[in-house]
From TrEMBL:
Entry GO MF terms: 2-oxoglutarate-dependent dioxygenase activity; iron ion binding
Protein name in UniProt: Phytanoyl-CoA dioxygenase family protein
Pfam families: PhyH
Species of the source: Spirosoma aureum
Keywords carried by this UniProt record: Dioxygenase, Oxidoreductase
Length: 277
């Protein structure tokens, strides 16, 4: 579908403040996630969705047949730091509107970008196993949050994101990488501890924010269309880089933080501040 919005109007929307209600802030801090409706217009999602989709299919290197892929590879095509690849993608990733929401939910003075990633679950794509993102990040503070932006309405058959409410407060599973094992271990543990799992469709324009230690998963895409999602990971602008605790954090320290000194703050070249009071 042809985008029907002028670029300047799209940019204005991306940078216009969205007022987060106190109710939404309270919900996020209690449950570790929140879903917000009508954050972005269909026209903006269409305009930038076309740009992001073109980049995903141009940069994607995962071309194995689905039956030959690992569980993680079946979950989605994953393309990261699109903002460094395309100026128009950078406009979307650097949205002050989206960054301010992250700032307000966490109750901090501002946020930096950690990195962005497009997550495209192909038709017949499998589950995204239970996991917590911050397992992968050498960041000292839990003040981290990911915005999950579906580029289309996302009914249950496309595999919307599901959240274990309040799971950001427990220590279980914090040493488990995303895998078939994490799906089984965490599903069992979360059930034993009676965590409510919120698993509902996303309307067009609805987005979610989830904390770094909130456990989440997604079902398979059994529709005939790709589930196109763009995400940005934000951290408190005063975040501190800590000594990596596993091989993934070692890799993240090099790739997303440019190996900055342990105990220091991320640098502005790779992790610029996107919103600050």
């Amino acid at each position: 579908m042809e985008a029907t919005i002028d670029k300047e109007i799209a940019l204005q929307e991306l940078n216009r403040p969205y007022e987060v209600s106190q109710e939404a802030v309270n919900f996020y801090r209690k449950n570790g996630y929140v879903k917000l409706k009508q954050v972005l217009s269909p026209a903006v999602l269409d305009y930038y969705g076309d740009i992001i989709t073109d980049l995903v299919f141009r940069l994607n290197t995962l071309i194995k047949p689905m039956e030959e892929r690992t569980t993680y590879e079946r979950a989605f095509l994953q393309i990261m730091n699109l903002w460094l690849e395309d100026e128009r993608a950078k406009e979307f990733v650097f949205s002050k509107r989206l960054a301010k929401i992250a700032t307000d939910l966490m109750g901090v003075q501002g946020v930096r970008i950690y990195h962005d990633q497009a997550l495209y679950k192909e038709p017949s794509g499998g589950i995204t196993p239970w996991h917590a993102d911050q397992f992968y990040w050498p960041l000292a503070s839990p003040n981290t949050v990911t915005v999950w932006i579906p580029l289309q309405a996302t009914p249950m058959e496309m595999g919307p994101l599901a959240f274990a409410e309040g799971s950001q407060c427990v220590e279980i599973g914090r040493d488990v990488e995303i895998s078939d094992e994490s799906e089984k271990i965490l599903a069992d543990e979360l059930q034993k501890l009676n965590f409510n799992v919120h698993d509902t469709p996303f309307e067009l324009g609805e987005v979610s924010y989830h904390a770094g230690w909130t456990f989440h998963r997604a079902g398979p895409n059994v529709s005939d269309r790709p589930r196109k999602v763009m995400t940005m990971i934000y951290m408190d602008k005063d975040q501190t880089v800590m000594q990596p605790r596993n091989q993934f954090q070692v890799a993240d320290h090099a790739k997303w933080l440019n190996n900055v000194a342990i105990g220091s703050q991320p640098q502005d070249d790779l992790n610029p501040v996107l919103f600050s009071y």
